[in-house]
Amino acid sequence: MIKSFLPFTFPIRVKSLLCVCLITCLALSACNPKVPPYPYKSEKVLNQKAQEISTKLEDYIEAWFRGQMPATLPSKLLPVGADPTFKHYRLVRYEDINPKLQWIIRPADKVNVQAMHHSFPDPHTTYLGLFYLFAPFGHRVVIDGDYPHARFFDIQMTPSFNPNNYYYKGFVGVGEVPIVDADIKPLPDHVNPFLPGADRSAKNRHYQVVYTMSMGDGVKRNPLAFTPPYRAPGNHRYGSSIVYQGPWGDPDWTRKESSPVVKGLAHGRGEWGTGSLWIRYYAPDSQYWPSGGVALPKVWYETQDGRRYFIQADQSEADAVINKRAKANTSDPKEPDFKISKADFGWEKQFGIFRAGLTGLALKYNWYTKKYIRELDLGVAGRAENMPGAGGLEPSATTCVYINYLERDMALGKGKIAVMTGKMPTFPRTQRNNFIMQKGQMRYWSVTGYTSNGIEFVGGPVHSVMDEDVALDAQRHYIIVFSRPQDRPTNATATNGVTWANWGPVGNVSWIVRWLSVAPEWSFALTPDEKFLPWSKATWTGSAYDPKLIGQNTRTGIMGEYLPNIHYLAKKDFERLGTKVVFENIPIWNTQHR
Known about the structure:
Layout: H1 16-25, H2 43-65, E1 87-93, H3 99-102, E2 104-106, E3 125-133, E4 140-146, E5 150-157, E6 167-168, E7 172-173, E8 177-180, E9 206-213, H4 218-221, E10 236-239, E11 242-244, H5 251-256, H6 260-265, E12 272-284, E13 298-302, E14 308-314, H7 316-322, E15 348-349, H8 353-365, H9 370-381, E16 403-411, E17 416-423, E18 444-453, E19 457-466, E20 477-483, E21 499-502, E22 508-516, H10 535-538, H11 547-550, E23 565-570, H12 571-575
Parallel strand pairs: 9-10, 20-21
Antiparallel strand pairs: 1-14, 2-3, 3-12, 4-9, 4-13, 5-8, 5-12, 6-7, 11-12, 13-14, 15-16, 16-22, 17-20, 17-23, 18-19, 18-22
């Protein structure tokens, strides 16, 4: 979270990067945003408006099918407030659909500080995004593709329309309705390679998933798929491609706001937006990197009587922004002097992107009270602990539903090293010709350090390590050393049971640990999910926050050895540990030697 303010996963809606980062610059301003009322407007009025948007779109589609209307949608049909970087919406017949035009793709990519991606991606992951989803209620969205050769894959879509579930700018608000790889039934005579014991190399691996566009509470519509552990049989879910963005989309609210934070972050162009469809491939097999060895999925819409079509938008502007790269700005070595990068600080668990950003600022700059953050999060994002429905769940907009995100800052002084130690849960190995899918205590784990080039380029990865690249001892303990190349200890080698990672050219980073579980087959008693580490206790803003759980840099918390511990010491101090490094012998924090 923390240095760069926002610990979200790639990507947020186009142009929101610059706006979001203004919060960092204005963090010490006395002009705090006003807390909007929640709910913001009448549920009845907003439902009527959503139905009106849907009906007008459906009427136009019917007229187009009859040959009475051109393919290009008039702008008056689009939701007022939709992202303007998606342009020229047009109807396309099924036979003319081109998957290469449908998706914005952020491929998995090795860390490259000379040409970083932005927006906090996991470099070991390929992201597919369709962010101009727009179909009437009652119509179906069909996703037709092949299971990738990867560790994990899921599909997520914005939930059924509920005016009290905000989805602002695509990154603030409720999470998406998921369907995870192991729950997707393959077509007849095909294989789901993600089932325990399945042949991961199977050639016939086709699937088809359907979301019906609907109104109503997303959790009630998907009672199993949209509640922990987010598992449900069958290939059908309910979602919506018409979303309500809440008060920060309302020009009437933003005009009344004097806060420079709101002026920078709230677009105020309208309260309505289009939906989002996400597909993620975590850890594509090395021989199929980065695409997962499959063609892009094809997406189409279906009317209630089965006629197929699609609404395509020109997303060239959005694609250019999302896939922009930049060189990491070099910064001087820096001692870890902020509260959230010091010796006694453990980890903060993410419960929503917006709240995590505010929490980072509060911890770092003593800005905002817990009560204010909780109230602002409810008013802007429509989220709160113990809230019924989607607003009270751990996943938020754009995050992977099956990942628990742990976050903290870290800095590195001259001649120093940072060390991460802990115990690695079991996981299915998939990178090196492992052809049978195994069960495990989790599905995937990684740690990534991020930097930002001012307010124009946020969340570029400067180092990243995933589970299968980590050296483990017989008890599955790991030692990961982060340092600049010139400060690498001579004993920081795989032969000595140590994994080394190049820290990069920066003074400090925001660390995110991604802990991905698919319960029950890939989970265990200490999985840091929302039941084991609930919202009220595991985040600093929680009403019953308990730092002893994961907030302290010790092994005495609720996760024991499985919680990563952070050590800080000089290169020479680590070298004194010898050629067979034992993680219990590594001092937690030693700032004396240089």
